[in-house]
Specification:
With about 110 residues, this protein is α+β, with helices and mostly antiparallel strands. The protein has a single domain, classed as Rossmann fold, CATH 3.40.50. Strand 1 and strand 2 form a beta hairpin. It is globular, with a radius of gyration of 16 Å. The two termini are about 30 Å apart. About 15% of the residues are buried.
Length: about 110
């Protein structure tokens, strides 16, 4: 699955190279052969730097909550204030958190 993310990141870096210098948000999906299903992604990115090595990657679980958490607004504000370096945020949408995060065999704070 890591290779898929690297390919996806490279694709977005190339795609964004031709775009204007605003914060972008895109929806996409990748197929996970390990989970045997399509995984939905939300991708937020700052403008592409001249030196592609300056790009940073942040992977977020619960990508379906990125809108509610205002991730795009936060990235936009921090980037415009020059408080963060160029960044790609990939939110990975969860289907069944307990199963996908590997904690199904352990009770949570509510003993579930």
């Amino acid at each position: 699955m890591i290779k898929t993310y690297n390919i996806l990141l490279l694709f977005y870096v190339i795609l964004l190279a031709a775009c204007s210098s605003k914060i972008k948000e895109n929806k996409d999906e990748v197929y996970s052969r390990h989970l045997q299903k399509h995984i939905s992604l939300t991708i937020i990115s700052t403008p592409v730097p001249k030196d592609k090595g300056d790009f940073n990657l942040l992977l977020l679980n619960d990508g379906q909550d990125m809108g509610q958490l205002r991730v795009k607004n936060i990235v936009d504000s921090l980037y415009n204030k020059k408080l963060i370096l160029p960044l790609v945020v990939v939110g990975i949408n969860a289907f069944d958190r307990m199963q996908e995060y590997g904690v199904a065999g352990y009770p949570d704070y509510q003993n579930n």
